[in-house]
Design a protein that fits this description.
Layout: H1 2-59, H2 65-92, E1 95-96, E2 100-101, H3 114-137, H4 144-167, H5 178-181, H6 190-208, H7 229-248, H8 257-284, H9 289-304, H10 312-337, H11 345-363, H12 373-405, H13 412-417, H14 419-424, H15 431-442, H16 460-500, E3 506-511, E4 514-518, H17 520-526, H18 530-533, H19 547-554, E5 562-567, E6 573-585, E7 588-597, H20 599-612, H21 623-639, E8 642-650, H22 653-660, H23 662-680, E9 685-690, E10 693-701, H24 704-718, E11 722-725, E12 728-730, E13 734-741, H25 748-764, E14 770-772, H26 777-794, E15 800-809, E16 815-826, E17 830-832, H27 834-844, H28 847-863, E18 870-874, H29 877-880, H30 885-896, E19 903-907, H31 909-914, H32 916-929, E20 932-938, H33 945-950, E21 955-958, H34 960-964, H35 972-985, E22 989-992, H36 998-1006, E23 1011-1012, E24 1021-1022, H37 1032-1073, H38 1077-1084
Parallel strand pairs: 13-14, 16-18, 18-19, 19-20, 20-21, 21-22, 22-23
Antiparallel strand pairs: 1-2, 3-4, 3-7, 5-6, 6-7, 8-10, 8-13, 9-10, 11-12, 15-16, 15-23, 15-24, 16-17
């Protein structure tokens, strides 16, 4: 029994050991098979490197194929080194900062397991693929050293970081693999590998720019065909083969799923090639070999992301769409952004990769997705966008910096000869011979060019033949040139003889200085017959005192014309331009001399000198002649009677050009010149110095008033209207400055400077006036200059303030209106009078900004303290003349939100006189906005009934001078009554300015004046001090006067009634005392 139990126990133990051993062997076999598959797949991916090398070498020109091959070799080897040292640990190490990985054991592959070693081999192939994609895109122009640095940067940082975000959990759980944790699917690297390489390539292409000759002058692309489509096709097929390992090996195990992955890969690549082939023909009209290859690669790239989750039908769709997108994307970048991608890598790997990565969310079965289809679309889209932003912008920053530091691109010469020679000192094929022939045919090089012969070169024999051909052709060309030269010399003399008589110049043939022949024009020029001249020395006909000049001219050869004087038979000295040339004539050296008659040119030059001293437009003396005249006048004045210098500057001339055009401006200048000439007379000189500036030199001045009177006459004459035609006229005016010599200065510079100071004073004192220079005027101008300088910053410094003066209604003294008045609180001078700074502001143009500011403040006041009140604002003539005047008014109203009906603009008559048509047009525009218009200072200018009836004024403001004259001048009352009556008749409100006494206000109210303004009502004060009702004493006075007037009216009525009654009684009594008619008749009889 015990034996049986022991045997049973032993048998059971052996069975257990056997089962465990069997299970262990299965795992080992499975692990070995998986590792074998990974290594086999890695080897297949190595075929992709060969495929990339062949494809890119075939798609570039032969002169660059060696360089492309070297880049493919070096980017793979350097990427292996960089990924092994640092890239692998960044991609698959433990997450740090949630962005990158790092483990000491992976740094330099120090401590890795067998599985991790196999995993590294597979992943480093992926890294090499991403780096290789860049080489094709930047081919034929990027320096090899710069490319290697770029490959290292991609392998160490760009590729590993993004791998960590997507595949960082492949060896261990990692929070840094946030895209993977979100469910992002990129099985074999459509985005992680291919799009990463493509976006870095796009950045590099943008920094590099296009190859020489890639685009024409209009920016249209020019196809630079590769030298071997056969190599390209072979490389494409090798890539197809390698792609089976690329996608199949991504399972990292030899399982059943590999079959479908490889099936999907083959289907997508095939249909991608079909799509590229068809679309290429439809777009280009022929079968360009690169289109089918790029279509195939686009399909392979697209299916790489979802080859493990797609159905065969989905793989077909993804492959066809990926191939089509690759073709269209490359064409789009090339035509619209002038991006030169030598092999189409950006569209093939970048855009097709995006299609595959996002497309799987639409086409994969739902059970293969990490969540809902909408969620998957969101995750896939976010992943590809993040990939583009990270890879492109980091790549662009890197290549931009690298370009600044070491330079990315070879120079133009190196690019033209090819990078094979430029960077590798190695030549392939016969491209150099073709280039030499092309230069010869295009004329860029001559027969003297030779090609260097390299012993052992495959083109050595062809190079020798080319050089021998050049030697023979150069020899033949030299012989033909010598024959042509001999023929030209033999024909030259005959040609000269035949043509000489057809020229307008005199031609003489000389031998040793003796005339041996000549043409008809030479006979006509000098008046001698040809027989009289032949055999004589040419020096016989020179002007005696010009002998040396003539001799020099005859022997100057080909060094240009030389001017001499020749003596004609008539004795006339004729200026001629001489030029000579030596030729071979019948075996002798003879000189052909050409003589050009300069008499007409000399006469024209004299006329030009006269014209050069006159102004072309006005006919007056110009500045040059004026300076000479002034210099002479000053010298004469010092030794004799005084001379006056009068400077004239036309006022408002710019407005004529702006409003009526430059032709009208020319008419004004001509008329101004005519008027000045008529005033000065024949003894003086009138000059136009430029633009609208004139100067007058008036000699023989007996006394200063004589010159000053001339200045006043100029001002008066220029104030008259100038007709512009078509019933148009312009009012310009003139400012005048006068200085005397020697009274004011004794040299012309000082005289001119003093006259200019006087002119400046006239312009800054209101224009349209004449000023005689006097001592101290310069100091006054300096004060005005300082005031002007302070004005430039016063507005910005907040030194201006708007005061408001009330206007009272005549019937009840209610204050419903205010006038806005400007005040300047100068930080040093204190309160500056408007009469002092307003003319300066108008002269320097600052008044435009100031007026706009005042109107803006008035608008704000109408919305605030003066809501519901009426505010009037003065408008300067300069602002009214601006083209954008109405637009600025509208803009301020819109900005402040002010109601136009509360605002009134005060205009003066002078604004309208200058251009009444334009003024009327502007006033109508202002009225259409809703603004009221007032005629300010009525009665001080050209006031007339026609102005009031023609322009749409709402208010007439009677100038204070008329109010002040009441009670002092006999006709003041009559004038005041007439103005008030005129305003009432035209339906305009009448405002009296400057009311300062109760008697004045009483009179004005009795005459039905509508409003009063003056110190009696209220002074101009800041807005916070503005009064809202009339002074109490004035109100009381006006009430008493109203009562008295009412009582007087009653008394007058009673008296009138009594007088009427008494008159009636007198008539009754008179009738009672009168005898009957019969008695009267009898007495009469």
């Amino acid at each position: 029994m015990r034996r049986i139990l022991a045997i049973s126990t032993l048998a059971f133990g052996l069975s257990i050991v056997t089962a465990e051993a069997s299970a262990l062997n299965v795992r080992d076999v499975e692990s070995g098979l998986n590792m074998t598959w990974i290594m086999a797949a890695s080897a297949l991916i190595m075929f992709m490197q060969v495929g990339f090398l062949l494809l890119e070498a075939g798609m570039v020109r032969s002169k660059n194929s060696i360089n492309v091959a070297q880049k493919n070799l070096l980017d793979f080897t350097f990427s292996v080194a960089a990924f092994a040292i640092a890239g692998f640990t960044i991609a698959f190490g433990s997450s740090h900062y949630g962005l990158i990985g790092f483990d000491w054991k992976y740094l330099g592959l120090q401590k890795i397991t067998t599985y991790e070693a196999g995993f590294f081999v597979f992943q480093v192939m992926f890294c090499g693929t991403a780096a290789t994609i860049v080489s094709g895109a930047v081919a034929e122009r990027m320096r090899l050293s710069a490319y290697v640095i770029g490959s290292i940067f991609l392998s160490v940082l760009i590729y590993p970081v993004f791998v960590h975000w997507v595949w960082g959990n492949a060896l261990q759980d990692n929070p840094g693999a946030f895209l993977a944790n979100l469910g992002f699917i990129d099985f074999a690297g459509s985005t992680v590998v291919h799009a990463t390489g493509a976006w870095v390539a796009l950045a590099a292409c943008l920094v590099l720019g296009a190859r020489e000759g890639r685009f024409d002058k209009q920016g249209r692309p020019i196809r630079l065909a590769g030298h071997s489509p056969v190599l390209t096709a072979a490389g494409g097929l090798l890539l197809f083969i390698g792609w089976l390992g690329f996608n199949g090996g991504s399972t990292l195990k030899a399982g059943e799923g590999v079959a479908f992955i490889i099936l999907n890969t083959i289907l997508a690549g095939g249909f991608g090639a079909v799509a590229g082939h068809i679309l290429g023909y439809l777009k280009d009209g022929c079968y360009l070999p690169e289109k089918s290859v790029n279509g195939m690669l686009g399909g392979l790239v697209a299916v790489t992301a979802g080859c493990a989750v797609l159905t065969p039908a989905g793989a077909i769709i993804i492959g066809a769409v990926g191939g089509a997108v690759a073709i269209y994307a490359n064409d789009f970048l090339e035509q619209n952004y002038k991006i030169d991608d030598a092999v189409g890598a950006i569209g093939t790997h970048g855009f097709a990769g995006v299609v595959g990565t996002v497309g799987l969310a639409f086409l994969a079965p739902a059970d293969q997705l990490s969540g809902s289809r909408l969620h998957q679309i969101y995750v896939q889209t976010g992943g590809v966008l993040l990939n583009f932003c990270f890879c492109f912008f980091l790549g662009y920053a890197f290549f931009w910096t690298l370009n600044r530091v070491v330079g990315l691109r070879v120079n133009q010469k190196q690019e033209l000869i090819g990078l094979n020679v430029a960077e590798h000192a190695t030549r392939i094929g016969v491209g150099h011979v073709e280039e030499a022939m092309e230069n010869l045919v295009s004329g860029q090089r001559g027969f003297s060019q030779r090609l260097p012969t390299v012993p052992g070169d495959e083109a050595e024999k062809l190079t020798d033949l080319f050089n021998q051909l050049m030697i023979n052709m150069e020899h033949e060309h030299r012989k033909l040139s010598e024959l042509d030269a001999l023929k030209a010399q033999s024909e030259e003399a005959e040609r000269i003889t035949a043509l000489s008589n057809a020229t307008f110049e005199g031609i003489a043939m000389l031998k040793n200085g003796i005339i041996i022949d000549g043409n008809q024009r030479l006979v006509e020029l000098l008046g001698y017959s040809l027989d009289e001249m032949v055999g004589k020395s040419v020096m016989r006909f020179r002007v005696k005192d010009k002998r040396r000049d003539a001799s020099d001219a005859m022997h100057r050869g080909n060094r240009g014309f030389y001017e001499v004087n020749l003596a004609a038979k008539s004795g006339e000295h004729i200026p001629v331009a001489v030029k000579g040339r030596v030729i071979n004539f019948r075996g002798d050296n003879v000189r052909i001399v050409c003589l050009v008659d300069l008499r007409e040119r000399k006469a024209a030059e004299r006329n030009m000198r006269i014209l050069a001293q006159s102004d072309a437009l006005t006919g007056l003396a110009n500045r040059s002649l004026f300076n000479d005249k002034l210099d002479n006048a000053v010298k004469s004045a010092i030794n004799g009677r005084s001379t006056a210098l009068i400077l004239v500057d036309l006022d408002r001339f710019k407005n004529v050009n702006d409003v009526h055009g430059h032709q009208a401006g020319d008419l004004v200048l001509k008329e101004a010149a005519s008027r000045l000439q008529s005033i000065v007379g024949p003894d003086g000189t009138v000059a136009r110095l430029g633009g609208d500036e004139f100067a007058i030199i008036q000699p023989n001045i007996s006394f200063a008033n004589q010159a000053e009177d001339t200045g006043h006459r100029i001002v008066a004459e220029m104030a008259k209207p100038i007709s512009l035609g078509d019933s148009r006229s312009a009012m310009i005016g003139a400012s005048v400055g006068v200085a005397l010599c020697p009274e004011h200065a004794r040299d012309k510079e000082d005289v001119f400077g003093n006259a200019d100071i006087a002119l400046y004073h006239s312009k800054n004192s209101g224009r349209s006036m004449a000023t005689m220079y006097r001592q101290g005027l310069n100091e006054l101008m300096e004060k005005r200059r300082l005031l002007q300088a302070d004005l430039e910053t016063a507005l910005e410094a907040g030194e201006f303030e708007v005061y408001y003066q009330p206007r009272a209604e005549a019937d009840n003294l209610e204050i419903n209106s205010y006038e806005a008045l400007l005040r300047w609180n100068h930080p040093v001078r204190g309160l500056v009078s408007p009469a002092e700074f307003i003319p300066v502001a108008e002269a320097c143009g600052k008044i435009i900004d100031i007026d706009s500011w005042v109107f803006h403040q008035a608008c704000l006041a109408s919305k605030g303290p003066f809501a519901g009140k009426h505010i009037s604002v003065n408008i300067s003539p300069l602002q009214f003349q601006q083209k954008d005047f109405v637009a600025k008014i509208e803009a301020i109203l819109a900005q402040t939100g002010a109601e136009p009906s509360q605002l009134e603009l005060e205009l003066t008559e002078s604004m309208l006189i200058e251009d009444d048509a334009r003024g009327l047009s502007i006033m109508k525009l202002l009225k259409s906005i809703g603004l009221s218009l007032a005629l300010d200072d009525f009665g001080t200018g050209y006031s007339s009934l026609s102005y009031l009836s023609k322009y749409p004024f709402d208010t007439i403001k009677i100038d204070r001078s008329f109010v002040a004259a009441l009670g002092q001048e006999d006709n003041a009352v009559a004038i005041m009554k007439a103005i008030i009556s005129l305003g009432a008749g035209l339906g305009m409100k009448v405002v009296a300015e400057g009311v300062e006494t109760k008697e004045e206000i009483l009179f004005l109210r009795n005459q039905k004046c509508d409003q009063f303004q003056g110190y009696l009502i209220g002074k101009p004060v800041p807005i916070e001090q503005a009064i809202t009702s009339a002074p109490a004493d004035l109100t009381h006075f006006m009430t008493e006067q109203a009562d008295l007037q009412e009582t007087d009216a009653h008394v007058a009525a009673l008296r009138a009634l009594a007088r009427a009654k008494a008159a009636a009684e007198d008539r009754v009594l008179d009738q009672a005392d009168r005898p009957p008619l019969s008695d009267l008749a009898q007495r009469t009889a």
